[in-house]
Amino acid sequence: MIVAKEEAGSFCYTVSVIKITTVIFTITIAVLAVMHYLSLQFHLYWLYPWFDLLMHAWGGAAVALGWFTLRDFLPRLRVEWLSLVPTLSFVFFIALLWEVFEAVSGISQNNPDFLSDTIGDLVFGLGGGFIGYLMAKRLHDNL
């Protein structure tokens, strides 16, 4: 959006730009939320056990895109923080918090394969985070 305002014979322009990483992050989160809601309504997590892994991968990608979106709102954030290791560390931290939430809320209590399920969730979250990192890096490098 560009706004022009005339002041004493001169023009003042204000430019507001929404970056593509922010738009893609917002769409990714919205799709994740809708998919999660529908999965709960139609019991997809229980009907299709692989669906949980897909959601963890999608969530990892969303977290990585969100990490890059921080740069859009915090321009002083050092660009080194957007490299692979800090991004995947952040994705792993959020995935770990999510697994703690699942354990505390009792979601995983009835699962006899709790440990392998948790490890699978973390691995797929990191895999999705890597894909999200590649997408965000490519978008940021093309700006």
Automatic annotation (TrEMBL):
Keywords: Membrane, Transmembrane, Transmembrane helix. It comes from the Bacteria. The keyword Transmembrane helix applies. The chain crosses the membrane at residues 12-38, 50-69, 81-98, 118-136. The keyword Transmembrane helix applies. This is VanZ-like domain-containing protein.
